[in-house]
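Case study 2.
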Amino acid sequence: MILKNNRDKKSHLDWDYTPPKINGGKQTIDDMSLIAGMYENYEVTKSGNLVGILDVSGINLDLLNDNEQQDVFSDYGAFLMSTLGEGVDDSLQFIEPTIPVNMTAYLNGLKRKYLDLKQNHPEQKFKIQLIASYLDHYTAVQNSKNMTTKQHLLVVKVKIKDKSIESLDLAVNNLDEKINQVKRDLENALTDFDLTAKVLSSQEVLEILKNLINFKG
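Prediction:
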């Protein structure tokens, strides 16, 4: 279900949720899922939270010496203490799913190069055949999902006060502020290692959910 940005003041959300008992696999995904739908770029949960996701770039520790690795752990620990330390009533969730590598941009570049050679340099037959073989190979790899990578996700949430649309809109504003603050704090804490964080759009969140359901790594 996708929650529309409905401004009707009489509209209310229904997020009463009790985790279902296991019933021989007869439940639908909607029955088992904690997610009620999407609103703006965020997930609305059946337990009354608004949830956003940051996609965080990784740091390859294998390329760092011992001192640099220690600096990473120290800076990351400082971020956690400032965000979730003593006296902070909050929580963050860290998820590292295995996902298929998205080679669409690379394949599109090969297609443009292939078409340009075919049209403007048809005499370069060997090069045309070579690019065609790359296209065939990497298209098959992408379709088979045999090439995978780790995705680093940071989940941020705020509580929705009640079941009114007004409270949902307020929660969106609160989560906008909170998730961007977490993004700034994380990037600043690890700025020496060029770490970046991106707030995912609703379409990107839906893609993650689809991979979690359909992709077997």
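The chain has six helices and eight strands.
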